[in-house]
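ok, trying the design again with the full structure, not the truncated one.
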C-alpha cells in the first residue's frame, strides 16, 4: 500500500476518531498523524488500518483501537525527557507513538514472534529510541527502572506491584484492570510520594489478557 495513499485516511482518523471525541493534546494528535498504522498491521489488513477498531495481528493478539491508544497515551501526559515502559508490544504501534513523545521507550512482549516482528519494523521505520525485550512485562524492566510513565497494553486482574515499584516520583501508570474476558476499567496510578499512590478510574475498556507472574495464568489466557 503506497504510503501517500494512506495520508488521507490517517488524517480522517485523527479528526473523527480522536479530536472529535475529545483527545486534545496537540502533541498526541501530531504523533497519530505521523505514525503509519498501516505498516503495523498484517499486509492483508492494510486497507482497514485506519478503521475505528482493534485489528487481529499474529499470535492471536490485537493492535488496539486508535481511540483507546490515544486515551491511554494522553492520560500518561508524556514529556519529551520522559523514560517510558510499555508492557505488551504487540505490533509496536503504541511504542512508535510513545517514541515521538518522550526520550526512551522500553517495550516488553511475551510472544517472541511478535517482539521480533515489531523490533524489525521499528528499526526499519526509524524509531531508534525504542528498546524491545522478550519477557514477562508484569515484572517490569528492573535494570532500566524507575520510569516516568508505564503503559500496560493488556488487561490484568490487578495492578502489578513490580510496576508500581518501578514508578518514578510523579510518574503515571495506565492499565486496564478487571475480568479476564469481560470488560475492564482503565486505571491511572500516579506516584505522589514514596508511600502514596493515587488511583483514578478513567473509563471502561476491553483488552486481551495480561499473562504473567502478576497477570493471568498461562492456562487462563
Ligand atoms: N500495544 C500493542 C497492543 C498489543 S495487544 C500494539 O500497539 O499493537 C497486547 C499485547 O500484550 C499482546 O501482544 C500480548 O502478547 C502482550 N502481553 C500479554 N501479557 C504480557 C506480559 N505479561 N508481558 C509482555 N507482554 C504481554
Amino acid at each position: 500500500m503506497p504510503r501517500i495513499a494512506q495520508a488521507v485516511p490517517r488524517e480522517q482518523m485523527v479528526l473523527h476518531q480522536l479530536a472529535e471525541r475529545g483527545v486534545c493534546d496537540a502533541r498526541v494528535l501530531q504523533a497519530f498523524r505521523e505514525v503509519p498504522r498501516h505498516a503495523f498491521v498484517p499486509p492483508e489488513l492494510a486497507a482497514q488500518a485506519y478503521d475505528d477498531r482493534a485489528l487481529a495481528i499474529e499470535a492471536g493478539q490485537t493492535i488496539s483501537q486508535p481511540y483507546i491508544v490515544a486515551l491511554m497515551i494522553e492520560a500518561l501526559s508524556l514529556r519529551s525527557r520522559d523514560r517510558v515502559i510499555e508492557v505488551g508490544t504487540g505490533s509496536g504501534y503504541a511504542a512508535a507513538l510513545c517514541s515521538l513523545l518522550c526520550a526512551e521507550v522500553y517495550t516488553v512482549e511475551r510472544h517472541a514472534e511478535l517482539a521480533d516482528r515489531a523490533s524489525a519494523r521499528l528499526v526499519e521505520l526509524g524509531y531508534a529510541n525504542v528498546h524491545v525485550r522478550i519477557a514477562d512485562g508484569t515484572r517490569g524492566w528492573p535494570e532500566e527502572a524507575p520510569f516516568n510513565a508505564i503503559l500496560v497494553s493488556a488487561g490484568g486482574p490487578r495492578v502489578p506491584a513490580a510496576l508500581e515499584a518501578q514508578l518514578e516520583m510523579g510518574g503515571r501508570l495506565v492499565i486496564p484492570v478487571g475480568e479476564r474476558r469481560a470488560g475492564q476499567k482503565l486505571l491511572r496510578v500516579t506516584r505522589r510520594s514514596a508511600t502514596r499512590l493515587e488511583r483514578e478510574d478513567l473509563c471502561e475498556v476491553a483488552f486481551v489478557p495480561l499473562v504473567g507472574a502478576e497477570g493471568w495464568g498461562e492456562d487462563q489466557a
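Keeping the full-length input from now on. The chain has a mean pLDDT of 96.
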